[in-house]
Amino acid sequence: MPHHADIAPADGEAAPRLDWSRASIGDPRPCVLCGRPALLRHPETDQPHHKVCSEPTTPATVVRKATILPCRFCKAPASLRGPEGKPEHWTCRRKAAVR
Questions:
Q1: DSSP tally for the chain: helices H, then strands E
Q2: Mind listing the pLDDT tens digit for each residue in 33-69?
């Protein structure tokens, strides 16, 4: 079966969509497309994805391969940047402020 992005819709037809009923749910992991935490796993690859990131109707300017950098406090993957522009988790920053 070809990947959904490889199929161009005919005129007047909706873009093909993946069958997400087989998708699994897991612990939050960075989405392989946007980098934000995702619970949903892609039904074909089992990689962390947001459904909206994976659908072909999502603008290409929004979906891009993200570089996941480690949190400056705990070294786990962090998809958010803190006030200084460094990758971190909100909870890690809070814990560091208490120390």
A1: 2, 4
A2: 888 888 999 888 888 988 888 776 555 544 455 577 8
Write down the residue that tokens 């005129």 correspond to: 11
**In the predicted structure, residue 31 carries a pLDDT above the cut 80:** yes
State the Cα–Cα distance between residues 67 and 58, nearest whole angstrom.
Answer: 19
Please state the φ and ψ torsions of residue 77, each to the nearest 5 degrees: -55, 130
DSSP symbols for 44-95? TT--B--HHHHSTTS-TTT--PPPPEEPTTT-SEE--B-TTS-B--HHHHHH
